[in-house]
Amino acid sequence: METKTQTGGKNKRVGKKTRGVSAFIVLLFCFAAALLIYFKIFGDPANFVNNDPNNHPLPGKLLGTIYKGGVTVVLIITLLLTVFVLSVERFIALAKAKGRGNLINFVYDVKANLRKGDITGAEALCAKQKGSVAAIVDAGLKKYKEMETQSLPKETKIEEIKAELEEATALELPTMQQNLPVVATISTLGTLFGLFGTVLGMIRSFSAMATTGAPDSVALSAGISEALVNTAFGIATGAAAIISYSFFTGKIDNMTYAIDEMSFALTQTYAETHEK
Questions:
Q1: Residue 13: in which H helix or E strand, if any?
Q2: What is the pLDDT of residues 166-188, one digit of tens each?
Q3: Beta-carbon-side half-sphere exposure of residue 275 (alpha carbons within 13 Å)
Q4: How far is the C-alpha of 20 from the C-alpha of 172, rounded, in Å?
Q5: In a domain, 11, yes or no
Q6: Domain that holds residue 176
Q7: How far is CA 110 from the centre of its chain?
């Protein structure tokens, strides 16, 4: 919850802003979880010949094949888990930022109150809606009421209202966008790590063939399938990250459109209903 203090004739926001979960901490926890999954589930001895993870996977044991994909699988699983965790975190954070009610109805109701000149009613709607969007609109409404008591040129008052809305937006927007750059980065890293793991697996397969001196189609097929596991996981991770990023940026765009519309409505209403 933010408050304002008067400093040199200007309003200054103070107070602690609510921040989301740190992506670095999420990565650490997901890495630990990935290690457990890799060694305890994929590396379960029951998945391999003679119950030995150093041997080939048993026929039909996909988990064993994934284990043979190597340590790169751990990194890709870490990224995949990170996407899931950050997606849940952003879903909760943006739901709070949007507020309790329907955002479109909120904008419509506030505009209706503005047309009637009921600023107090509009503020009550913000208090009921809550969230980042309502906080930005409420800041604009307070500045709107403040300008009605100031002896300044009309154009200056309108610019003051605009500046207040822009400042409030600048404070709230980074919170809404937090961790999304990490998800966007994972959309590329997931695919690259997948290809990297595949290349390493192919190198190991062909190196083993060169050492034995005789083509072993079974060993080669097993090696290729193990290498391609990295590609599959990498593509899945990249796709999940892209879907998550697009979904949440779309939600943020909808909120910024609502903020822009309310900013225009506030300044336009003041210009139309006040002579000075």
A1: strand 10-14
A2: 999 998 888 899 999 999 999 99
A3: 0
A4: 12
A5: no
A6: 21-273
A7: 29
